[in-house]
Queue: 2 jobs
Job 1
Amino acid sequence: MQYFPPALERLVEQFAKLPGVGVKSAQRLAFYVLSMPQEEADAFAQAIVEAKSDIHCCPICQNLTQGEGPCSVCLDERRDAGTICVVADPKDVVAMERSREYPGRYHVLHGVISPMNHVGPDDLHIQSLVQRVSEGNIHEVIMATNPDTEGEATAMYLARLLKPFGVKVTRLAYGIPVGSHLEYADDATLMRALEGRREL
């Protein structure tokens, strides 16, 4: 039995396709959209259409940018063009930029190597990274993929791939979060913290 009009059912179905949104949440979102003033609903729909048509990958670093040209980070001449921070997703660039400590540029893979999910090296933006490094102006590549199995495997794969170019390849240090207690840290986190220790 159909509880909602077909147009509302379709709207609920579309919201339910979003990650982390179940059927109940999708229904709440759909009803909220219906309660919006027409101008707000039009603006919401237009924002989705414009984002899909205007947002592209930067031809240099593969980060998201508006239009066909390079992104704002690649265009910023104040940034160190000789350092590349490799991240899995565009949202990781946002996380790195929040720290306001990283002065270099980025390369976004758009995923990690994951045989379980049928994602191999050819499915990622690895070739463009190799191309950038092969041009010879890069002195350090920082691997900033997540410290999970897929992230580690991707970092190791890229390190082996870039080794012949003589570039310094480093990995972000991982360890005990600021404000936490040692007793709650797992073995792998403690091991990483010991490996990444530095002199005071």
Note: The mean pLDDT is 89.
Job 2
Amino acid sequence: MDEFKNPDNLDDILGQARQMDEGAMGQLVKHYYPTVLRFLSYRARNREDAEDLTSEVFVRMVGSIKNQTGNFPAWLFKIARNLLIDYYRKMDRQKSSSLDEIEDDSITVSTEDHREGFMAGEIKHMLTVLTESQAEVISLRFLNGHTLEETAQIMHNSVGAVKILQFRAVAGLKQYLKKDIGA
């Protein structure tokens, strides 16, 4: 959607959405739904849970958009992140699902997302070898394409802290892949 490339257009759409304009809210949902779903798909146990969580993100967006300020995508992903935390608390789990519980067909990985080298299940499994924070940084930065600044806002961290987490996560993945492929 080209209207989101121009920050002024996004501001106009957000202004209309804050006035509870259904068309503007529909545009926001249509534009951000795929990226929010992708973020949650790599962290939830299965596709259905990710879809439910994504729907809840947008229900909460509609319920609180009147008071939204600051970076809209970062705000939206904060909602998603908080729902994901609640999701894992309800499951009484600290780590992501094991490989046995992952539905490999639950995520479509396209080449335009620059992840063509790995299957979705492999990516989910690789995220389980990282700490929660490291996995979140990898998901936000590389799977969803957020900037360092947006990632820092979503995670309530400084840009420097995100850089350190990202460095450690990439190093951990490199080490894991070396062991896994025997290189």
Note: The helical segments are 7-18, 22-41, 47-64, 72-90, 120-128, 132-143, 148-155, 159-181.
